[in-house]
Specification:
- Two copies of one chain form a homodimer.
- Chain A has 418 residues and is α/β, with parallel strands linked by helices.
- Chain A folds into two domains: 200 residues, Rossmann fold; 149 residues, 3-Layer(aba) Sandwich (Rossmann fold), CATH 3.40.50.
- Chain A has 13 helices and 15 strands.
- Chain A has a seven-stranded mixed beta sheet, with helices on both faces. Chain A has a four-stranded parallel beta sheet with strand order 7-8-6-11, with helices on both faces. A two-stranded antiparallel ribbon of chain A has the order 9-10.
- The longest helix of chain A has 22 residues.
- Chain A is elongated and about 70 Å long.
- At the A-B interface, helix 6, strand 10, strand 11, helix 10 and strand 14 of A face helix 6, strand 10, strand 11, helix 10 and strand 14 of B.
Amino acid sequence: MPKNALYAQSGGVTSVINASACGLIEAARENKIKVFAGHNGVTGVLSEDLIDTSKESNQDIAALHYTPSGAFGSCRYKLKDIEKNNNECKRLIEVFAAHNIGYFFYNGGGDSQDTIYKISCFSQQAGYPLICIGIPKTIDNDLPFTDCCPGFGSAAKYVATSICEASFDILSMAATSTKVFILEVMGRHTGWLAAAGGLASKNHSNVNGAPQIILFPEIAFNQELFLQRVELCIKKYGFCSIVVSEGVRNEEGKFLSDCDLKDAFGHTQLGGAGTIVAQMIRNNLKYKCQLAIANYLQRSARHIASKVDIEQSYAVGKAALELALKGKNNIMTTIVRESDKPYRWSVGSAPLEQVANMERKMPRSYITEDGFHITEECLNYLTPLIQGEDFPAFENGLPKYVRLRNNSVPKKLGSLIN
Amino acid sequence: MPKNALYAQSGGVTSVINASACGLIEAARENKIKVFAGHNGVTGVLSEDLIDTSKESNQDIAALHYTPSGAFGSCRYKLKDIEKNNNECKRLIEVFAAHNIGYFFYNGGGDSQDTIYKISCFSQQAGYPLICIGIPKTIDNDLPFTDCCPGFGSAAKYVATSICEASFDILSMAATSTKVFILEVMGRHTGWLAAAGGLASKNHSNVNGAPQIILFPEIAFNQELFLQRVELCIKKYGFCSIVVSEGVRNEEGKFLSDCDLKDAFGHTQLGGAGTIVAQMIRNNLKYKCQLAIANYLQRSARHIASKVDIEQSYAVGKAALELALKGKNNIMTTIVRESDKPYRWSVGSAPLEQVANMERKMPRSYITEDGFHITEECLNYLTPLIQGEDFPAFENGLPKYVRLRNNSVPKKLGSLIN
């Protein structure tokens, strides 16, 4: 009997992670491999809560291509270390064995690659034959060994489009009203997503180079230099448009969001980096300042996804299945950049062992010397990743997204007792 | 010599106000009328800072159709009352006379309609022949006498799409992570834009009816009932997705954003309604809660504009010019709903005198009895307004928007001395 495959989604979802699921499941169907999915990532595997994807129509699987979020549910869950508690790993092997799983695919970021690496090691130790392949995914773009991370290009396109549009807005208003606009974006400890805002500055449709300021976690925040720069922009351009990364830290390495900042009334101000920076400008420069916080919108906005990103997401899922069938093991599929202009890419792979728990920050050469913008080198890196549109179908004015049936696989084991 | 027309944009801009400019200018070109534009609204008229739109190519004027924001600059400026200071009105007449202006068009919301009404009254008093026509525009949808306000449908489509996409996201995450997602939207004292979030609940692509809660300025906020409802949603659906209007007030009529709320550390929490509500959930229910603040993004997101809204914006601009040429005066162009299903509309008009400074709140019958959602009646009203897409062209991965030359008209007068 041919082995079944198990696929699961993990960590913060993206607008295109389902395209990876689609690539993998379509390739599996071609190869007559049955795919089960973990409901809510590895937690569903632990609780033997599996979904039978073979019950979904070809049409619904194809519609995953156009549907944001994790169709099978994702999770934030860190497996316990094998040395401390190998009950979890034993349980996983039990579930794999009960359902004749020969291939395990985990679709996620750095922590998730660590999870699959642990599972791979343990299955080897336990003598259970299991091919383990990681599929990359994160809007943070912080995985090593891959030129970019599926999910990033679409979030980047959202951020660049949004700051472009909002900058057109503030240009209209600045003469008598708002002088500063701030967009807070995600990215954890790295500035990749904030950097994407810089694409709007360099585009034909740019307004006065906006955003004129980008704040990166890689550059220690200096309040005085920052406020000077804001003032300078307003003098020069009439307004100042800013993209700030949630992960910005001050010179002591403390997140801005953890710093005490008093408002005009002496109240302590709490909030994310955007809130803090906005209040700083209002208190010190007395300008009218507007703040947008993109939050989940940037990682779920499938309606403005990048075509390149969707293609890459699909490809890393499809390749994962195909490489597994060729007997490759213990790898994560990657995107390899073949050339910048014209942009050419292919799918490669990297050893799981080296990928797990590594975080790729922006190279210093991608950030201008003053620390407030991106360089041409960065622009060359980012530009190909937001190319092309692949709009979802719309029905009744809204995007048409699919919800799968998600039929459960009948359980064969008792509950997990920790 | 035929009279010239003067057009200006006022108040917060939208993603489609330039479509009204496009409609007006294209109609004027057909009728051989020259259009000057006030740079930054009426403030540009006061300072004789006028733009000669005849210097723009047909192609660039057509591109206004696809470009968000106010291409000639907008303003937040309230004319002084004639009784208190008629220098301003005198000055306006001087500028009109110097540039042979026979038609004045002001494109804005309630305050702007008041401005044009004042100008109309004064020009009559002063014996200066001037046809004054208001063109409606506001994402707040709070102008009376028009079925809807150009700009609203596109912002509504943005809000509904965004909460739909973010709700897909939180559905994936809720099992082990975020349980509550909040989107704060604009709308000033009215809940029209928040109501638009409800379109996502009723759509085929809805996830568990999300957003399950909408907070309207029209309904006094009750913390206890609200928190109970959040808890109920999480029990029933696994997560809770919320749209909150910036203008929500408590039972004493105080804006949530003006209320003191202590955080877990006893710090006073400041922020908009979304920030307050998020902190309230974290403090009282201890759930992980994410907050997005759409801010300018919702009013500038031309990439996801409503086709119906664009067509209406164009039409009210075009009709304003045509009605002026027919000698109509002292009116604002409006949208008249001819039928719901199929949706049919036409352009009408309302007397400026009655429009100025009136604010149209949501009817109580548009809000469910419990105050947390929209009714079928509201759904029937809103649904047609977000229909259709009219994507801008994209170049190099980003929307292609136009920036006009905005050549100045040579000044003929000295500076204004107040």
